[in-house]
Structure prediction request, 234 residues.
Amino acid sequence: MAAAEEAAAAAGGAAKPLFAGLADVSISEDIPVEGEITVPVGSHSPDEDYSTLDEPVRDTIMRDLKAVGKKFVHVMYPKKSSTLLRDWDLWGPLILCVLLALMLQGRSADSTEDRGPQFAEVFVIIWFGAVVITLNSKLLGGTISFFQSLCVLGYCILPLTVALLVCRLVLLANIETAGFVVRLLVVMAMFGWSTLASTAFLADSQPPNRKALVVYPIFLFYFVISWMILTFAP
Prediction:
């Protein structure tokens, strides 16, 4: 009989809900609820909401022109700097390439006397050479990106563009022997300037034991452009 009562008590206890006592607990409405139900996401700066779509076109163009001008200054005073690599763009190389192609363009296609390369030839030679050098750098283990390399190689054409302007002025003076000597010295100086500037920017991104393999194609690239400038006859 006692065993039956214990079994019944056990069965009754199992039938009770697990949290039966919690149903009688009530929270007073007078208890204030403090705190904010927000997730902190860090400090919010006004620059995060800034977009070029919110500014006038004139401000955008002026900012880009200033950035291009600063890169030109870095090329004219070459030193080890990450400016061209960090804030790369292709506006400067495009402008320089178009200027070179326009100034190196020979006579018109209808002329019977071909005395210079055409616009498309210069344009293709410059960009194709820059792409080949970039691929060579990447295959040799360079840490620089594709467009960063194109940016540096394109901007470093600036000294050769200056050399071409000087050569055109010398050719307009119509000086034979002395003019050729002046053109030769100017082109050689600017060729060295372009080579040194590009290697200064690209040196740290190449493996130490393969820098010569990277510099040699750069040397040939600027040498071809220098040769076109030196042999140009309007």
About this structure: The two ends are 126 Å apart (CA to CA). The first helix runs from residue 2 to 15.
